[in-house]
Protein: Glutamate synthase (NADPH/NADH) small chain
Organism: Stakelama pacifica
Amino acid sequence: MADNPMLKFVTRGQAYPAKRPAGSRASDFDEITERYAVESAEEQSARCSQCGVPYCSVHCPLHNHIPDWLRLTAEGRLQEAYELSNATSTMPEICGRICPQDRLCEGNCVIEFSGHGAVTIGSVEKFITDTAWEKGWVEPLVPGPERGQSVGVIGAGPAGLTAAEYMRRLGYEVHVYDRHDRAGGLLTYGIPGFKLEKHVVMRRVDRLKAGGIVFHESFEVGRDASLAELRKRHDALLVSTGVYKARNIKAPGVGSAGVVEALDYLIASNRNGFGDDVPEYRDGRLNAKDKNVVVVGGGDTAMDCVRTAIRQGAKSVKCLYRRDRANMPGSQREVENAEDEGVEFVWLSAPQGFDSAGEGERVSAVRGTRMRLGAPDASGRRAPEPDPGSEFTMDADLVVKALGFEAEDLPTMFGAPELGVTRWGTLRVDHSTMMTSVEGVFAAGDIVRGASLVVWAIRDGRDVSDKMHAWLKQKAKAKTSAMEAA
C-alpha cells in the first residue's frame, strides 16, 4: 500500500511563507509575503488531517472543498487542485490574500484545536491559483448559448463581478456599471497593494471583459441614467454597490483641514500607485509624508491606513482604538504586521476633539481620553467608557477616521424612492428571492448585509445569480406563452 501523503501535522511544523523584512517592505506597496516554493506548498498541504467533519469548509462562506484540494496539492496534482478550488470561488487567489483565515477556515482547523497549528490554507490557495495563472490553466470565460435577455449590474466590486461572471456563463448579455474609472470596487481602490497587488485584480477584470461582459466605467446611476432608465435597458438589474458612507466622529474640530475619511485617503494612495495624477495626494492633503499621523479605529480599514502612512514616509503613526487589543475587530495578523513596521497602538483611547490654529486651519493635535471596559453591551462585548481624569494630547498633522461604513441613500441617489431600505439604510430584499421591493431589481453583497468580508460578497454574488437566473427563465417562459396565445 502506498504511503499516505497526508496527516503529517505531527512530524511537520506549521510554516507560513516568509515575510519580507519590515524595514524593506515598509518602503514600497508590494505584497509583504513571499510565495511558497512547490515543495513547501506540498509539505504544508500534507499537514491536513483529512478530518471527517471539515470545519474549515463549514466555516468558509463559500464552502470551498479545502481538504480535497489540499490533498491534491500534497500529491503534486496542482492543476486539479486549482480546478477544484476554482469550482466554488470566482477569485480564489484574492481570497487567499485578503480573507481573515485566522477567523474562518484556519481558525476552525481541527489540528489548530489540537495545538499543532492550523494548516496554512490561505497561503496554499494563493499559491495554487497564482501557479494556474502562470501555467495558463485559468481558462477564458466562455459564454453559454445566448438567451436574448440582458442583465445590468450596478457596482463592480466582488459581489457584482461574481454575479456578472455566472450570468455570462449562463448566456445572458451582461453590462456592469461602476462609478469608478476602473472595475474592482474596494479590491481596486480600498485595499492597499501590500495586501493585494493591483495586477491580481486587473487580470480578473480583463478576463471578464474578454468574455464579452460590457463595462461602463465612470458611470453614476442617478447622474448618467436613473434606475428606471436602466430597468428599461435590461431584463433584470442587480444592485451590488457596497457601502461607502463613512461613519463620523462627533467631536469639536472634526471639520478641520487634515481630518480625512479613510476611504478618501486609501483611494488617493491607490490611484497614485496606478500612476494617476491625484492633486490631493500631490499637494499633501491625502499624503502622510513627513506628518504625524493619527488613525482612529480598530478594524482592517484602520490597519490599511496605518500601514499606508508608514509607506508614505510619515514622521510618526499612531492608532487610537477605544477597546483593548483582545477586543479589536481587525485581524491580529494585521496588527502584528503594523507593529513590525513601526505603528504605535494606543489602546483603550478615544478622541475628544481636534485642535488647530483657527477655523479652517490644519489640524495640529488630537485631544483624547483613556477608556475602560464596562458592562457588556447588546452585542455581548464590554462597552468602552471614559476613564475620568485621563485626558491627553498628541501631535497630529493628519487624522484618518476609520470607523467603518454605512449604506448611502440609494433611493435618493438613484432617483428611485420606491426602492425599500431597512432602518440601517441597506436595501431590503426578500431573502428567498434576493429581489428588492422593485420588480426585477435584485441586490447582493454589503448593500444588503452591511459592511462585511469580500468572501461573503463573492458568496452573495454566486447566490444571487441563481435567483436571477430562475426569475429570468420564468420571465422568458411567460413572454413565450403570451406570444403563442396571441
User: Anything to note?
Assistant: The first helix runs from residue 22 to 25.
